[in-house]
Amino acid sequence: MKKSNKVFAAAAAGALVLTAGATAVANAGTASPAPAAAPVAVPAADVQPIADNVVSQNRITVGASAKAVGAALAKCQADKLPFVTVALVDRFGTVQALLRGDNAAEHTIESAKRKAYTAAAFGAPTSELAKRVTGNGPSIADLPGTLFLPGGVPLKVNGVSVAGIGVGGAPDGKLDEACAEAGAAAISGAAE
């Protein structure tokens, strides 16, 4: 071993001994840690599934969601509108299915989701809701996540809105809405 390597090895060993000694001195004055307390079991409330305690909700299945967005996009493509996006959301706005057409711009994704949510939340087509936005000042159009432009259609089960399908990207909202209606019609036996 070269002299410089011996000096380095000796210095490293000394540092190790010094560190171990400092740790031993630091720990000498401390009491051993108390054993950890056993975890306390917190009982969970077993809520009884009765009408007064639990809300039951209907949802559109993944298969029906895929069928609806596929049918809506197919309608748009047949109408020479390959640059749209179709979204199907539950009534809380959670995306269940989304299909972006060829050449659809980024903004069409958000537009489709917001139109779908607006239709689902209010239980009416966004073209009808847009007519309610009038006057100056605050209105329902100021609600976060909503978009009051034609192109959103609610999906209902037993008359209750459970989801919405929205289309964004066509040059006219009426074209978006025609595609959304085609998507809704594709599953209308399951969501009326």
Write the layout of secondary structure elements.
Blueprint: H1 3-28, H2 62-78, E1 85-90, E2 95-100, H3 107-122, H4 126-130, E3 152-157, E4 160-168, H5 173-186
Antiparallel strand pairs: 1-2, 1-4, 3-4
In short:
This protein has 192 residues and is an alpha+beta fold. It is 41% helix and 14% strand.
State the CATH class of the domain at 62-186: Alpha Beta
Query: What low-confidence regions span 5 or more consecutive residues with pLDDT below 50?
Result: 4-26
Q: What is the CATH-assigned architecture of the domain at 62-186?
A: 2-Layer Sandwich
The helical percent reads 40-55%
How many strands appear in the DSSP assignment? 4
Order of helices and strands: HHEEHHEEH
Here the CATH topology of the domain at 62-186 equals Beta-Lactamase
- Amino- and carboxy-terminal Cα gap: 87 Å
CATH-assigned homologous superfamily of the domain at 62-186? Haem-degrading domain
The biggest sheet amounts to: 4 strands, antiparallel
Q: Briefly note the structural class of the backbone.
A: alpha+beta
CA gyration radius, whole angstroms: 31 Å
Tell me the strand order in the biggest sheet: 2-1-4-3
What count of helical segments does DSSP give? 5
The coarse overall form would be: elongated
Give the averaged pLDDT, no decimals: 84
State which percent range the strand residues make up.
Answer: 5-15%
